[in-house]
Amino acid sequence: MNYDRANLLDLSVLACIEKECFPEDAFSLRLLKNLLTNAKSVIIKVTTPSGKIIGNIIGVRKKENNKTIGRICSLCVLKKYRKKGVGVQLLQLLQEEFCKSGITEVRLEVSTHNEAAKQLYKRSGYQMTNTILRNYYNDGTDAVVMRKNFFCH
Ligand SMILES: CC(C)(COP(=O)(O)OP(=O)(O)OC[C@H]1O[C@@H](n2cnc3c(N)ncnc32)[C@H](O)[C@@H]1OP(=O)(O)O)[C@@H](O)C(=O)NCCC(=O)NCCS
């Protein structure tokens, strides 16, 4: 698999991938376009050797008080390619991008029902916080906030 920064040419494919992963909460084309062009956001795509995009991760740098933290907005791997380490690798590469901007704290929201994602994040060193966001998703499910502090080499 190849991992690389996504660009505007990837817009429509990324929109389809988001829809497959988040049928109820997919980012709109407009929001994705904004994320692809905004200097504060990072989208990393993963491509098969034949050039098909099969997943992506979206992160945003966010100022909080005097500190910049990273936020993970989306992580998606197409069904057929799951459970092969692609999600963990995308997460690792986004963390490295964050490190380049001096970010050492990352937060994310994940559905309380999403065992696969919660496991992936736990395995990658993220911890659950006490913050539960009620009715966060369009289907009415809650989100839990997870966070990680790390050192950059
Ligand atoms: C969550 C998601 C990105 C995981 O991607 P993936 O490429 O399959 O993940 P990986 O293969 O890197 O898995 C890493 C670890 O996550 C955990 N994990 C992944 N899928 C899992 C599942 N179905 N059940 C339980 N744990 C799971 C495991 O601990 C796994 O490590 P292991 O294979 O050594 O046991 C993928 O399932 C997905 O796109 N889901 C739909 C969208 C989504 O829910 N995104 C997260 C929202 S924030």
Structure characterization notes:
- The structure is a single chain.
- The chain is an alpha+beta fold.
- 29% of the residues lie in helices and 36% in strands.
- It has helices at 11-21, 29-37, 86-100, 115-123; strands at 2-5, 41-47, 53-64, 67-77, 105-111, 127-133, 143-149.
- It has a seven-stranded mixed β-sheet, with helices on both faces.
- Strand 3 and strand 4 (67-77) form a beta hairpin.
- Helix 1 (11-21) packs across helix 2 (29-37).
- The relative contact order is 0.15.
- The model has no long low-confidence stretch (mean pLDDT 96).
- The structure holds coenzyme A.
- Residues 21, 75-77, 82-88, 110, 114-117, 119-120, 123 line the site of coenzyme A.
Provide keyphrases for this structure.
153 residues, alpha+beta, Aminopeptidase, 4 helices, binds coenzyme A
